[in-house]
Amino acid sequence: MRPSRDKCLYGGRGSGKSHFFAESVVANAANNIGFRVLCIREVQKSLKESAKRLIEDKIQTMGYGSMFNIKHDEIETPGGGVITFTGMNSQNSESIKSYENYNIAWVEEANVFSKKSIELLRPTIRAKGSELWWSWNPDSSDDPVDKFFRGLTLPDDAIIKRINFDDNKYFPDELKSEMEQDRKNNPDRFAHIWLGDYAPQAVGAIWNMANIHSNRIHNIPTIGRIVVSVDPAVSNTENSDEHGIVVGGLGEDGKGYVLDDVSLKGSPQQWAERAVAVFDKWDADSIVVERNQGGDMVRHTLKTIRPNINIIDVVATRGKHVRAEPISALYAMNQISHVGSFPELESQMCRMTASGYDGSGSPDRVDALVWMFTKLFPSMINRPVKRTSNRQPSSWMS
Ligand SMILES: Nc1ncnc2c1ncn2[C@@H]1O[C@H](COP(=O)(O)OP(=O)(O)O)[C@@H](O)[C@H]1O
Ligand SMILES: [Mg+2]
């Protein structure tokens, strides 16, 4: 590739993006004394999520084993350089400065890299001839990296390349059969996962990603009331649904905020423990649980973990998507913000349509979300719908 400050590879799964950049990291470090590389992602909870293992493998297969010193959390490169692995979540505007004289920053999974992270990282990497490498599987045209590198005005001199599995001469058989399966059964998924198109939106969806993105914030505002909302799955087997557990609050500004999604599969004991833990974490006021499926079992399960917890139980009298619509209306009026991003919850939301859920499994995270805002915005949800010819806007609209 010609020299340029930004090098981007985006596209579908299995196109060889990670392998290509990992090999390039090793080749550069082997051929340039004291070379420094920062492998960075938005969130790195452990080294397992990083490219460290892949880079170690490349050092071996490329025959450079004796030149590198692999340590627990970094790799020393020939002549006193280093390959460092970190997440933006553990950096601030001060700490990031320690990477100023790095030669390359490789941003992995750049589709979830925030605008703020892009703005912090770019001026940090400033050594003479330094480069930023970006690899990602696209999700939404609203994602900051897509706006930055696939928008109307592009940074000077950037190399931006879309690649897919058919560009990968090492595309393994295991991935090939998975890909063929999707090509046959699920064209939408095929185009998104394997061809690198943006994620499809269900036709007639009552939420849309653009709205969620444009209202998204990253710092927690002042919140009045916080609730944890649980939609417990009925059974607990390998194929059971997830227990939806979502946390949200009502801000002092009167808007709604989604704060956490800690949904999980598991036993009743496990969801109850998780729900109580997240209740404590957010110092919540109450727990909302849907009662009709497990009856008093749900209440009982919670009380065995925390006897005096404040439970609000709700009973479903209307169908899922009917309950969901007033909440999607709140979103449409920009009354709800997600604090951070919740990919699984958000993709379930964008598959809820006026006639039901258009995804696989059951939309447990959405259910929990809907109950949560139903309780946080009671006035709008419980008011009787007047079907007169001359409808007045409800009070919450004024
Ligand atoms: N340079 C390479 N050498 C060996 N195998 C490769 C190479 N590039 C890609 N592969 C194979 O293709 C698969 C997909 O590559 P990967 O880099 O993980 O793709 P992506 O990051 O685009 O999803 C890898 O798991 C590996 O089996
Ligand atoms: Mg990859």
Q: What sequence of helices (H) and strands (E) makes up the elements?
A: EHEHEEEEHEHEHHHEEEHEHEHEHEEHH
Distance between the termini: 57 Å
Helix percentage: 25-40%
CATH topology of the largest domain: Nucleotidyltransferase, domain 5
Largest sheet: 8 strands, mixed
Low-confidence stretches: 383-398
Strand order of the largest sheet: 3-4-5-2-6-7-1-8
Percentage beta strand: 15-25%
Provide the structure class. Answer: alpha/beta
Q: Which ligands does the model contain, each kind named once?
A: adenosine-5'-diphosphate, magnesium ion
Question: What does the average pLDDT come to?
Answer: 89
- Highest-level CATH class of the largest domain: Alpha Beta
Counting DSSP H or I runs of 4 or more residues, the number of helices is 13
Please state the CA-atom Rg, rounded to the nearest Å: 24 Å
Q: How many domains would you count in the coordinates?
A: 2
CATH architecture of the largest domain: 2-Layer Sandwich
Number of strands: 16
Outline: globular
Describe this protein's structure.
Helix content is 33%, strand content 20%. The chain has 398 residues and is an alpha/beta fold. The protein has 2 domains: 6-173, Rossmann fold, CATH 3.40.50; 209-381, Nucleotidyltransferase, domain 5. An 8-stranded mixed beta sheet has the order 3-4-5-2-6-7-1-8, covered by helices on one side. Strands 13-12-9-10-11-14 form a 6-stranded mixed beta sheet, with helices on both faces. The longest helix has 15 residues, at 17-31. The termini are far apart. The protein binds adenosine-5'-diphosphate (ADP) and magnesium ion. Magnesium ion (MG) is lined by residues 17-18.
